[in-house]
């Protein structure tokens, strides 16, 4: 079933009775060539590219809950390519390019909106750091414009420019940054993978990983044992537990990150805006809700809900930056489980066990990575060699100290990235 | 979330700074292997359920404490001085 304007029109005139489920609901087969554990954004995009680029089809995605129930359906949907360090920069650049062609690629409306992202700065030191970051982005082939205070005012006249404690000096503007509809990204990749023969199996929790003679043989699940000689672990916040089933201990600590949405309002915030003093960032969804968030709660957690101190901090930061939002009513807040690494950068690598691969450590920036992570993880699983854009995402960089990518320069403490 | 400091009593979580898993008290010898340092600095058991982590009573008495918590329910189960754990006086 293809989507088109004509099709929407026809369905609209005939009571929308012609739509069909976007993917099948198959029972697990006894064996596959490749099993992906985790049906989040990264697991689904990996399955899609394995089928689409490498022509493989005996693939199963095993999801313990439902597609889109994890972080891929909980994030604040920001897409950008403004990373600074070699290793990260080329990867996120690759990802943004995939985003730009994704709707045509998937024949699915993921509502990519390149509305522009503005990261504000509030001191000379921050300006220098952003100028340098902007140069790195331009050198990578992406776009960045350093705005002074008046330049920011042209775009964001509603900010509090009179704040003496945190004066706005300017902002780094990344016009190609923006947002996308998070659920649609999961659904679009799920549909694309399913159409190419991938079995997407929901309500199927992996409970064990079978290994014999240093080679992976399959997995144990709540729906029985399933064999495969290649298994990819793509479970975000649950990476530590699933890797432990294979006897691995990962450089990951799981933390909770919260987000918030207000009632729907008329369009007021056209960009994605982040505050450089106190962690706060915001955009407005197409439905009109102000979607915003801040920092981790900072303690290890699997609760997928946070506590009040961070709620208070985020609200305070928001009110400091744009007092006009003070009367908007917050409808909901929620949390997701973030797989935090000691340098804040991800891992796409082999594990030391033949046939077992891992894609994890996305911290709280893995939504923008969904297309490139799938592309690169599929490349690794299919060819046993890292994709050039993700060659820096090695698991052993922590042990050797070679190739660490600490964007924020905060050192080996998981929650500080 | 409230934490009962052994010196100050029950306090708001905001008075404490979270450092990481209590494995940080087991610092390897200076000349220990790469693996030992990797285990200390980076690798984590990262349990869903009962865990022990190191906090600093920053806005209170300034003591480092080991907090036993549940990472799924956020219940705080126990809190002892890190110096007692490091010296072996407490498990
Ligand atoms: C509040 C919040 C805001 C965020 N904002 C942004 C943002 O603006 N921009 C950005 O780039 N990133 C953002 N992120 C980060 C981003 O959402 C994640 O990095 C990314 O979604 C993680 O990859 P995923 O989609 O594969 O994870 P998930 O969707 O969590 O997928 C993992 C899946 O694995 C499944 N699973 C776990 N264990 C098992 C098992 N044993 N067996 C079978 N299945 C299992 C889970 O049920 C889950 O569905 C945000 C995250 C949060 C929580
Ligand atoms: Zn105290």
From TrEMBL, chain A:
GO molecular function terms attached to this record: nucleotide binding; sarcosine oxidase activity
The organism's taxonomic lineage, starting at the top: Bacteria, Pseudomonadati, Pseudomonadota, Alphaproteobacteria, Rhodobacterales
InterPro entries: FAD-dep_OxRdtase, FAD/NAD-bd_sf, Rhodanese-like_dom, SoxB
Chain segments annotated as transmembrane: none
Catalytic activity: sarcosine + O2 + H2O = formaldehyde + glycine + H2O2; sarcosine + (6S)-5,6,7,8-tetrahydrofolate + O2 = (6R)-5,10-methylene-5,6,7,8-tetrahydrofolate + glycine + H2O2
Keywords assigned: Cytoplasm, FAD, Flavoprotein, FMN, Nucleotide-binding, Oxidoreductase
Location of the Rhodanese domain: 34-78
Annotated localization: Cytoplasm
Classification via SUPFAM superfamilies: FAD-linked reductases, C-terminal domain, FAD/NAD(P)-binding domain
Enzyme class per UniProt: oxidoreductase
Listed name of the protein: Sarcosine oxidase subunit beta
Co-factor requirement: FMN; FAD
From TrEMBL, chain B:
InterPro entries: SoxD (IPR006279), SoxD_sf (IPR038561)
BP GO terms, sorted: tetrahydrofolate metabolic process
Domain of life: Bacteria
A GO MF term: sarcosine oxidase activity
Listed name of the protein: Sarcosine oxidase subunit delta
């Amino acid at each position: 079933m293809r989507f088109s304007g004509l099709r929407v029109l026809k369905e609209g005139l005939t009571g929308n009775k012609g739509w069909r489920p976007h993917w099948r609901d198959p029972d697990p087969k006894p064996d596959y060539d490749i099993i992906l554990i985790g049906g989040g954004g990264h697991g689904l995009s990996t399955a899609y590219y394995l089928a689409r680029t490498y022509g493989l089809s005996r693939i199963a995605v095993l999801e313990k809950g439902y597609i889109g129930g994890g972080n891929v359906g909980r994030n604040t949907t920001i897409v950008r390519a403004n990373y600074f360090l070699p290793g990260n920069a080329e990867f996120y650049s690759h990802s943004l390019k995939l985003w730009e062609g994704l709707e045509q690629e998937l024949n699915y409306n993921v509502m990519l909106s390149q509305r522009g992202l503005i990261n504000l700065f509030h001191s000379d030191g921050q300006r220098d750091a952003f100028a340098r970051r902007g140069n790195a982005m331009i050198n990578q082939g992406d776009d960045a414009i350093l705005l002074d205070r008046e330049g920011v005012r042209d775009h964001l006249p509603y900010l509090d420019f009179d704040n003496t404690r945190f004066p706005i000096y300017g902002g780094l503007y990344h016009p190609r940054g923006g947002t996308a509809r998070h659920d649609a990204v999961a659904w679009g990749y799920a549909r694309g993978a399913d159409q190419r023969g991938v079995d997407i199996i929901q309500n199927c929790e992996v409970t064990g990983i079978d290994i014999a003679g240093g080679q992976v043989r399959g997995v144990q699940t709540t729906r029985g044992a399933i064999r495969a000689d290649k298994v990819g672990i793509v479970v975000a916040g649950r990476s530590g537990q699933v890797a432990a089933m294979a006897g691995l201990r990962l450089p990951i600590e799981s933390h909770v990150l919260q987000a918030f949405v207000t009632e729907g309002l008329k369009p007021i915030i056209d960009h994605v805006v982040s505050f450089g003093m106190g962690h706060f960032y915001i955009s407005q969804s197409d439905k009109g809700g102000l979607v915003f968030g801040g920092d981790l709660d900072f303690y290890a957690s699997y609760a997928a809900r946070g506590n009040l101190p961070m709620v208070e901090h985020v609200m305070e930061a928001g009110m400091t930056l744009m007092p006009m939002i003070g009367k908007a009513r917050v409808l909901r807040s929620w949390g997701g489980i973030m797989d935090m690494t000691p340098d804040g950068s991800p891992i796409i690598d082999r594990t030391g066990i033949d046939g077992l691969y891992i894609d994890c450590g996305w911290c709280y920036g893995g939504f923008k990575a969904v297309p490139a992570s799938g592309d690169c993880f599929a490349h690794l699983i299919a060819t046993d060699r890292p994709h050039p854009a993700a060659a820096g995402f090695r698991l052993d960089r922590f042990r050797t100290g070679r190739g660490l990518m600490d964007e924020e320069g905060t050192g080996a403490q998981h929650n500080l990235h | 979330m409230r934490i009962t400091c052994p010196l100050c009593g029950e306090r708001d979580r905001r008075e404490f700074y979270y450092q990481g898993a209590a494995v940080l008290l087991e610092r390897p010898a200076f000349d220990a292997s790469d693996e030992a340092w990797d285990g200390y600095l980076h690798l984590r058991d990262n349990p869903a359920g009962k865990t022990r982590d190191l906090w600093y009573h920053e806005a209170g008495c300034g003591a480092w404490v080991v907090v036993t918590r549940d990472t799924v329910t956020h219940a705080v189960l126990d809190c002892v001085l890190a110096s007692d754990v490091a010296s072996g006086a407490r498990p």
